[in-house]
Amino acid sequence: MKAQSIFKQPILFVLFCIAIWLPVSAYAGDIPTLSFSLGDSEDPDAWFTGLKIIAMMTILTLAPSILVMMTSFTRILIVFAFLRQAMGTQQSPPNQILVGLALFLTLFIMMPVWEKIDSNALTPYLNEEITQSVAVDRAIEPLSAFMIKQTREDDLILFLDAAKLEKPAEATDIPLHVLIPSFVISELRTAFEIGFLIYLPFVILDMVVASVLMSMGMMMLPPVMISLPLKIILFVLVDGWHLITANLLASFKM
Fold it and tell me: What is the pTM for the complete model shown?
């Protein structure tokens, strides 16, 4: 009876076949294996190449943090989160949609920076025209210029004073360990300012609906049942996604 119930359910049947196939294929040597090891070598270049591979793997693990903290992703995602809360639509749009839209907008905004990094650093390094250290310095320059353009001076002074550093003569001389937290704080402030402006018309609409219901004596009716469809209709009529995206792009001074 148990065997018959397994074969009647497709998912269980597939899992059952995989469980049988994996040991057999492993015994037959069909599954390739991947190993990484550092052995004895008298060539220093071999050790250096292995260390570079380890360093690149470490950078890949930090890539999500770099994407969030050093690009426009933070501001965009926070603004979208404020928008969803202001409309009161709970999980619509879902988190996957908001994160995906924020990611593609980030790629669009950061594309000029990526192009400069590719032309000035990545391509010459792959063509063995410059060294690795020079490539890293050239790659940091356009990214730092983008962050400096979006960072408030007060936030930079805060971290310069905390690090006991003097204000540099040129903005490009600001070290990264000062620039990155300053940029993140500035992004949070800007995102909250935009979020407040988004919240304001929806709060006013909620207050109007609540006042009208109270004046009509319909105190048992939740105001959200009336205000939610009105918010959605208003957002669609004013082409809300277009307005928010346009203002987000304008906030980055594109």
Answer: 0.72
Residue 201: name the closest of 164, 231, 241, 221 by CA: 231
CB 163 within 8 A of CB 155: no
Instruction: Give the separation between CA 153 and CA 151, rounded to whole angstroms.
Output: 6
**Residue 214, token pair as written in the block:** 């109270």
Question: What sign does the dihedral 151-122-67-100 (CA atoms) show?
Answer: positive
pLDDT digits 0-9 by tens, 204-246: 888 888 888 787 777 777 777 778 888 888 888 888 899 999 9
Angle between helices 73-87 and 176-215 (to 10 degrees): 10
12 vs 16, 64, 94, 127, CA distance in Å?
Answer: 6, 35, 30, 52
Cβ-contact 183, 151 below 8 angstroms: yes
Task: Give the Cα separation of 100 and 252 in Å (integer).
Answer: 19
List CB contacts of 84: < 8 A, sequence separation 6 or more.
92, 93, 98
Count how many residues are written for the chain. 254
What residue has token string 């908001």?
Answer: 98
**In contact, 134 and 117? CB cutoff 8 Å:** no
